[in-house]
Amino acid sequence: MAGTISSLLLGPVVAALPPTAHAAFFRATDTSPELISDPEHRVSAAQFCVAWSELVRWTDDPSVALRIAEHTPVGAFGVVEYLCRSQETLGDGLRQWVRYLNILDDAVVVGMVEDEGTAAVRVLVESEAPAPASHELCFAVLVRQAKDVAQSSFAPLRVDLSHQSRVDPARYTRWFGAPVRFGCEHTQLVLSRKALDIPLVTADANITAVFAKLASDQENELQETSTFLSRVRREVQFSLRQASASPERVARRLGLTPRALQRQLKSEGTTLSAVKRDLQRELAGRYLDEGLSTSEISFLLGFSEPSAFFRAFKRWTGLTPLERRSLGT
Fold it and tell me: Where along the chain do the CATH 3.90.1520 domains lie?
């Protein structure tokens, strides 16, 4: 399971970086300010892992996730967050978080594990490229927001983290108001079953209905575009705008080696050059219909000059771009 992560989860990471680190960060993660600010963009698990590693390196703060949680504004995690905040009880909110977390991050699988006295938000399947600090941030944000919206006092029973840390656990214990343990069997946020019944001051059935519909729509859209070929097409389209849809660049953005990329495309009955050609041809027709100039289209499709685009379009369709535009077909 490779999975991808929404750029919404990278926004707080970038915000926590010192400004002098931005250029190096974007090079290391193969991203850009424009991509990070695009809520529909997704990065590979490998890119997400590198992003967190770069943040810890540049800040020299292994507990930086706690600092991010203190300054993350309400709404930073979009529809999923608002859906959780609108629920009747804390338990309902956490169940919605678990239900729709894949919209934000489908590189991991998280579930609610309940027994007679406790309940836990637990990582059931870890990412192939783990970013341990991201779990710290997730639990810290959940606890902070739970304290903000709960109608009565709330604190977790404990926080278990499977990774090791060079930070004194007391730092985490003070922040969470509960014991925090590293090197555990599971990565989980543990709370009492009674805490699940705490009402939320932000409960609103009307808002719940709206955001449940939006979350469902986003999940369906994600499922439709999460096939391997769809991901390749998305990365090729981005790389075309950077004039570099090379196998190395596309593979890196997908968290693969060029050889692995070629093997998977072969199993799908295609090649990277065929995906690029088909995408250029499809986008060329769309851009012509939208009224873009041939110079603009040439740039967006990664051609070195308009004449190269003219020749390619003629080869694809038997028409020049101007003839195609005049026909409107």
Answer: 4-219
